[in-house]
Amino acid sequence: MGMVRHDAYALLLQGNDVLTFLNGLSTNRVEGACTTVLTNRSAKIVDVCEVVPVGEHVALIGYAPHKQSLVAHLTERILGQDVSITDISHLNDVFIGTGEGEFPEGTTHHNSMFGSMVIVPVRHEWQASWDQQAWTEHRIEHQIPFYAHEITQKVNPLKAGLGDLIHPQKGCYIGQEVLTRMRTRNSIDYVIRKKANPVKKATTIGQHNSLVVERVQ
Amino acid sequence: MDCGTCESGPALELHAPEVVDVNLTLTEKATAMLEDAFGDDRSHALLVGVLSGGCSGYMYDLQIVEGTDTPCQELNINGFRVLVPMASSHLLNGIEIDYVDRLMGGGFKINNPNASSSCGCGESFA
Predict the structure, then answer these.
(1) CB distance A85–B12 less than 8 Å?
(2) Is residue B48 part of a domain?
(3) Mean pLDDT, all residues of chain A
């Protein structure tokens, strides 16, 4: 039980069109708090983002190394909509884990697909109780995909084990044609499996077990 | 979460696309369909816009409107008022609006020389 520091960015999106804008660009139905994937035209991952309502605004939490490409992806598609973006990464620390702990005032809690996420104002200097190894073992045990392991910008969400974040009924979004065709025409899907070491083509390697993404038909 | 609105966090600089003078053509079939739709009333205009989204990144948005609050270029094409939002002018310069008459998938179609690809339904492009 614990929390690990997440190498995250936090963007604050303001304006009346924010949810519609995000919904039109991502795989999940965005109507409020959720985890969703923004994909490019070939359905490769731009980033996996947490949508966190903050009062009248929305915070977008994602993986820091993907921030530049995510911001470029968003900004070139703001065509007169009421959407503005502010980088608030330097004001907040982001942690993921099982959710237990004493959190300071001003902490925002969010149920992410990775687990329990908390966003803590930097001024509190809150410290994580887990190191990366503990988080890795937790992920392997619960078969949770994560950035830089299963989730990279070279794969589509299905291949990253994020099939649950692809809404089957929502309308068009960038990359939707490719993902829908993969699923319905070719019946391609992938699952994340935990296997005892040694594991060929492991995406996450733990002390005794590892994660591997396998294709199922 | 510290959302920084009280401390005026650094807003990301959004690079507004260049506004270009739009050239746009209507085919004979599209003109005939608009004549059917508008009749003699020229108080309305055809708004040709672009929305973000769709399978390929951008979607065409055709509307018949009296006016709009969106900053637009107003063109007169074949006797029709055509409005093109400034924000999407760079994506729409040079387009041809056609009308395809068929039972399935018919309607107004946009041939766009700026589009590097488009999705199967023809409404989305990149």
Answers:
(1) yes
(2) yes
(3) 93
